[in-house]
Amino acid sequence: MNGLEHGQDQDGLIEELVRTDRLHLLFRQSFAAIFGSYLAAVMLCWLCWDRFDHTVMLIWLSVLAVTSLLRVQMFMQWFRCPNSERTPDRWERRYWVTLMLSAGVWGIGALAVMPTDDRVSQVLVMLFTVGMSVSAVSCYSAYRYMTLGSMALVLFPCTLWLLFQPSSMQVGVGVVVLVFSTFAASATRKLADALEKAFRLTRQMERAHTISTRAAQTDELTGLMNRRAFFEHAQVLYAQCRHNQQPLCALMMDMDHFKAINDTYGHQAGDQVLRQIGGVISASFRQADVYGRLGGEEFAVLLPNTSLETARDIAEQLIKAISGLAAEPVQGLTASLGVATTRSLDQDLHSLMNTADQALYRAKAMGRNQVAIAE
Questions:
Q1: What is the pLDDT of residues 130-171, one digit of tens each?
Q2: H helix or E strand, kind and range, residue 251
Q3: Mean of the per-residue pLDDT values for the chain?
Q4: pLDDT tier at 3 (50, 70, 90 boundaries)?
Q5: Would you say the C-alpha torsion 287, 293, 297, 299 has a positive or negative sign?
Q6: CB neighbours of 272 closer than 8 A, spacing ≥ 6?
């Protein structure tokens, strides 16, 4: 994968994370809106009890209760599912459908209960619909078109009806609501854009921090942990193994005659050898193991919950894998390894590493290209 493709993948990942952040914010800030919208309908009916048709009013409240229960059920499913399943692809459409259904019932129901000959009731209905649209801006602000859609479904049925009435006051109220809608739509756009920019900036900062942290802990040449990162992770692993009373084996590895490779073929060839060694090490060990380049041609590995015999077998396989490498023009690559294991409770990490290092020197003294077990 080249740099451009990697950058595009990272941008796509950030966009998906931004979508997820928007969805999580939507669910967090809009749960109370379910009860608020139903409470607003109940209050409106209570205020205009003597002015509304009771049959129409009860039908409206009943249908609105059903849509509210559907939304409550959706929220309960959201809260119960694991965080890994709270994805936009799974939840955005469901939220859209339940919200538009509830908003549509609210707007059509408000029009149905509004008396045709009672100006006070009409003004009260419009006051409540405007209040509902304001709450939509605050509750669904992370989604611009969701906010506008819910506002339109709540406001427009009654507003359009008023615009076609003979009274200038009714038409004026409708015009005022339309003007208000344009300002609310503009505010919705600005708020949604600001939230999206904030989410994107946060994710980009997290990505930059992750990259810088990884760069500070990674050996640039081999892709393994550098010396500092290795010992940080090694200390944690050592403490875990000691707490769990598990054996911990240390492997110290050094390339044979590496200075001669640099002197004969140049440092570029030497760097290529180290890159290949890094690839072999990365492919040879478990995720639970800790391994890194300590410097030069020296590498270290920690194997948790591993017996000394198993560690020796792993080291032998690593020797064979390295001897099978072809790093043109370098031929006949070999390495020496020393293996040690924790033996006493008073031994610390550095003692374990020093013991493995002594075994490494013994492997070199015995002719190189072999594994030596600590005495």
A1: 999 888 888 898 899 999 999 999 999 999 999 999 999 999
A2: strand 248-255
A3: 91
A4: very low
A5: negative
A6: 327, 330
284 within 8 A of 375, measured Cβ to Cβ: no
Contact 363, 260 (CB under 8 A): no
- H/E stretch holding 119 reads helix 119-139
User: Which of 290, 340, 344 lies closest to 315, judged by CA?
Assistant: 340
Q: Is the peptide bond preceding residue 329 cis, with omega within 30 degrees of 0?
A: yes
Domain boundaries, the chain: 3-210, 227-373
Domain 227-373: CATH architecture, name and number where available: 2-Layer Sandwich (3.30)
16's tokens: 């998906």
pTM: 0.66
Cα within 13 Å of Cα(271), Cβ side: 7
Query: How many CB atoms are located within 10 Å of the residue 241 CB?
Result: 20
Distance CA 155, CA 85 (A): 34
Q: Who contacts 334 (Cβ-Cβ below 8 Å, separation ≥6)?
A: 255, 256, 257, 319, 322, 323, 368, 369
What does the pLDDT read at residue 213? 78
